[in-house]
Write a structure and sequence with these properties.
- The chain is α/β, with parallel strands linked by helices and 250 residues long.
- It has one domain (5-232): Alpha-Beta Barrel (TIM Barrel), CATH 3.20.20.70.
- It is 44% helix and 15% strand.
- It is globular and about 45 Å long.
Length: 250
C-alpha cells in the first residue's frame, strides 16, 4: 500500500504570523509514523515555512507553477523558483485554477511534467462539477481529465487528488460509496496509463471538505491514500486530527 499523504492547501490565506501553526503541525508529523505531511502555503510564505519545518518530516509545497523555465510570464512562478525557495511538491490543476484561470488538461499536464523534471512531486487534481455528477458523468469527466492531465513519465513523483468540485468549501462531502467508486476508477486508469506496477503505487488523495469529523471514515475507503485538505489545514487544531486519523489507519 502506498504511504499516506496528508497535504494542506492554504490557498490565498495566511501571513507570517500564521506560520506559528506549522510548529504544532510539525510536532504531530513527528509522531505520525508512516504518514507523509505537507503544507502548501502562498508563494510568499514558502521560504519562511521551509525554515520553520527544517529538521522535521513536514514538506512544504507550492500551489501552482508554470511549465516554462523562465520568460515573459508576468505573475507566474517557475518550478525552478519553487525549488530554490525550498519547496518539495506542487499542486497543479486544482479546480479553482481550472475554473477561474480556465486551465486546460494540456496545460495541467505540461505543469506536471515541468514539476517532475525539476525534482518536485506533482499533485494533479481532477474532479467533476455538481452538474456533471447529477448528469451521471462523474467517472467519464474524471477519466477524461486524468488522461489529459497526467504525464506518462516520473510516476514515482506523481500524486493524484480527486476533488469533487461540489464538495470543496461547501461543507458537503461525497459519500464513502461515491469516493470508493471514483477512486477505484482512477486506480484502473492509472494502471492503464502508466503500467500496472507504476499505476498501483501512485497515491490517490481525496479532497473536499475533509475535516476531523470525517477523516477517519474517508481514509478507510479503499484506494484513498491520503487527503488534500483546504480550510481545515489553516490551523493545527483542525489539521492535526486529520494527520492522526491517517496514522491510526496504519
Amino acid at each position: 500500500m502506498p504511504k499516506p499523504l496528508i497535504a494542506g492547501n492554504w490557498k490565498m490565506n495566511g501571513s507570517r504570523a500564521a506560520l506559528a501553526e506549522v510548529d504544532a503541525i510539525a510536532a504531530a508529523a513527528e509522531r505520525a509514523n508512516g504518514v507523509d505531511v505537507a503544507i502548501c502555503p502562498p508563494f510568499t510564505l514558502i521560504e519562511p515555512a521551509v525554515r520553520k519545518v527544517e529538521g522535521t518530516p513536514v514538506a512544504i509545497g507550492g500551489q501552482d507553477c508554470h511549465w516554462a523555465e523562465k520568460g515573459a510570464y508576468t505573475g507566474w512562478t517557475s518550478c525552478a523558483m519553487l525549488v530554490e525557495a525550498g519547496a518539495r511538491l506542487v499542486i497543479v490543476g486544482h479546480s479553482e485554477r481550472r475554473q477561474y484561470a480556465h486551465e486546460t488538461d494540456e496545460e495541467v499536464r505540461r505543469k506536471a511534467e515541468a514539476a517532475i523534471a525539476a525534482g518536485l512531486t506533482a499533485i494533479v487534481c481532477v474532479g467533476e462539477t455538481e452538474a456533471e455528477r447529477d448528469a451521471g458523468e462523474a467517472e467519464a469527466v474524471v477519466a477524461r481529465q486524468l488522461r489529459g492531465s497526467l504525464p506518462t513519465d516520473g510516476a514515482e513523483r506523481l500524486v493524484v487528488a480527486y476533488e469533487p468540485v461540489w464538495a470543496i468549501g461547501t461543507g458537503r462531502t461525497a459519500s464513502c460509496d461515491d469516493v470508493a467508486a471514483i477512486h477505484a476508477a482512477i486506480r484502473r486508469d492509472l494502471r492503464a496509463i502508466l503500467g500496472d506496477a507504476a499505476g498501483a503505487q501512485v497515491r490517490i488523495l481525496y479532497g473536499g471538505s475533509v475535516n476531523a469529523g470525517n477523516a477517519a471514515e474517508l481514509l478507510a475507503v479503499a484506494d484513498v491514500d491520503g487527503a488534500l485538505v483546504g480550510g481545515a489545514s489553516l490551523t493545527a487544531a483542525a489539521f492535526v486530527p486529520i494527520v492522526e486519523a491517517a496514522a491510526a489507519q496504519g
